Hints:
single chain; 447 residues; alpha+beta; SH3 type barrels; Fumarylacetoacetate hydrolase, domain 2; 6-stranded mixed beta sheet; globular; binds manganese (II) ion
Amino acid sequence: xxxxxxxxxxxxxxxxxxxxxxxxxxxxxxxxxxxxxxxxxxxxxxxxxxxxxxxxxxxxxxxxxxxxxxxxxxxxxxxxxxxxxxxxxxxxxxxxxxxxxxxxxxxxxxxxxxxxxxxxxxxxxxxxxxxxxxxxxxxxxxxxxxxxxxxxxxxxxxxxxxxxxxxxxxxxxxxxxxxxxxxxxxxxxxxxxxxxxxxxxxxxxxxxxxxxxxxxxxxxxxxxxxxxxxxxxxxxxxxxxxxxxxxxxxxxxxxxxxxxxxxxxxxxxxxxxxxxxxxxxxxxxxxxxxxxxxxxxxxxxxxxxxxxxxxxxxxxxxxxxxxxxxxxxxxxxxxxxxxxxxxxxxxxxxxxxxxxxxxxxxxxxxxxxxxxxxxxxxxxxxxxxxxxxxxxxxxxxxxxxxxxxxxxxxxxxxxxxxxxxxxxxxxxxxxxxxxxxxxxxxxxxxx
Length: 447
Ligand code: MN
């Protein structure tokens, strides 16, 4: 067993551990070794904090009412039950979060008294955003994505000279973050393709997805006070999936000189479960070594322990389900298989860089990693890359073709952490259906 995760693994990761919640054993996403945090609304009830277990959700307020928590776990449970968002829990940081995990693991373990009255069937609940997101920042840390996109626009000089020195990012829009399941409406905007003489205004014709990980901020920093690289893990409350919907025809026209704006701010879809750093402890891995020609990170971004165990062994997938496939009863088709190892910067480096100028990060803030493409074309994290900006259509098993997304298309992101000797955990789906642009009926033509 590699030394870098010995300390962080405990009885909650024991592969022999099983839950009295029968559907948790062998569950693809939520076995008892995961225990992700979220906010759900049971039918006809108020939103409340919960923990996913198999096909069920454990209610944290119900745990409190039953008097089943004590010490730091009680502190965590009370923070989670304060309101319809997890911000107070995220702000508490690792010790209370770990205590809650340990307590819930014991309560749900086989051999503990069965308490089905604390559970809700997930299928009967609505899943909400887990936190109020004050600020959302999207990075560009997927190096193969940056290379692919750069090659499309600058064949001779795909990576700009700053890329390997400074984590590139932009401030996104938090008001249009939506949880998995909420449909995404095709945006209108100014569109101008290179061969068009002037822009026109209308529904986006080149709507795309971006496969990203989300990083949830826990305890933040005070304005003016940076977060040291070795303290950055302490500011991360967990991880999720993020689809940074992008209207490429709007983006290519508007992005210079200040970067993404309306091409991305119309909506961003987030998976509803926060996968905690504790759940991911067995699935850390070394950051891939940089090529000898690449610069070393500047000292404020460089830490031995972060380089040794700051990356995540998380496999990522994208599935597409078109209207025609849905009508024909076909399953979603996997169009991408990627991996988080393609991130050129670790999550800790993103956090440290973000706060390095004294910018204050707050509990519930959300960072996107940037699109995660693998070097291999089967692992491209956007249609822009898969279809070479629409030049090489993607042929689907249904006989259809896609250059970009059509109305009725559903994009489903999935992620999975695994390691020999441990029980794999999943992130749950991050999915949404594209619906027609405002004021258009049915599957109107977008041209
Ligand atoms: Mn993005």
